[in-house]
Amino acid sequence: MELEPIDPETALKLYIAEKETSVADATVVSHKSRLSFLLRWCEEREIENLNELTGRRLQEFRLWRRNVGDLTKVSEKTQMDTLRVFVKWLESIDAVEQNLHKKVLSPDITSQENSRDVMLETDDAEAMLAYLERYEYASINHVTATLLWHTMLRMGSVRALDVEDYDPEEQSLRLRHRPRTDTPLKNKQEGERIIAVSGEVCLVLDDWIREQRPEVTDDYGRNPLLTTRNGRVAKSTLRTYCYQMTRPCEYGEGCPHDRDTADCEALETGGASKCPSSVSPHPFRRGAITYYLQSDVPETVVGDRANVTPDIIDQHYDQRSQKEKMEQRRGYLDDI
């Protein structure tokens, strides 16, 4: 097979143009953002023809990208998985050698690293929410994802909410510790608080309650905000929703792991957690906390809303790189 020359900028434009016809806008933005680093790397090395890409050069890019962004292993995996999809597309237009995508290496994530570091990346959260808003508006999946991402609440706190805890006029949610009726808060009475929610979140909640919420009570006669036909949603059910929603193929992205959807184990009943990209509820919280910190929301404000101390934020939630923290501090200190 004879390769057809193509420069990096043209290749990315063609790739994005194709993506725009098949995936959500937020997904297009996330791919374009991640692959922009490849363009930068090619420019620095004066690579004007992607025919020149080899397994060795892709490994050089991986090391460069890791150092430039001070990436966690989970973030590095996201970046390289997107690159693999792009390289596979390049193969389809005869721009690189066949099967080159198999030489795009990603770090292996252990279960221990996964439990500590994995989070729902902002690009992926926005792509997922955009898909849900368009195709599953005000569904139980849409409401669950909206609450977990926009409020930074723990799964147990989301599950504990009753319809009466939502005040549409004040645009707020009240968190209450009610262990005797099966909805304790992790920090008990100290976890009780009222949090503000945006108009966007309120619209979703209003339409869920009015149009889609099953009119049922729980075993204690309360009116759960999140319900199934059997009553208050179970924790295991919430985990299942999250694993299902966060599979990239579920919200319009191609599989970043080169799996065949015809025999992918993550698409089997009960197998959503087997997708390397899917996440449980807690990474929603970790990702949202990191997102708000990156957006220059003060740590004390984030901590009060999420009901977590600054020390715990630093130790378990904040996934900003040291360079990101430095640049944010610079923004405050340069004006003094």
UniProtKB/TrEMBL annotation:
GO annotation (BP), single: DNA recombination
- Every copy of the Core-binding (CB) domain together lies at 6-91
According to the UniProt entry, its GO molecular function terms are: DNA binding
* Keyword DNA-binding in record: yes
Ranges where the Tyr recombinase domain occurs: 115-330
**For this UniProt entry, which segments traverse the membrane?**
none
The protein's UniProt keywords, in alphabetical order, are: DNA integration, DNA recombination, DNA-binding
Q: Where is the signal peptide?
A: none
What's the protein name?
Integrase domain-containing protein SAM domain-containing protein
Q: Does the keyword DNA-binding apply?
A: yes
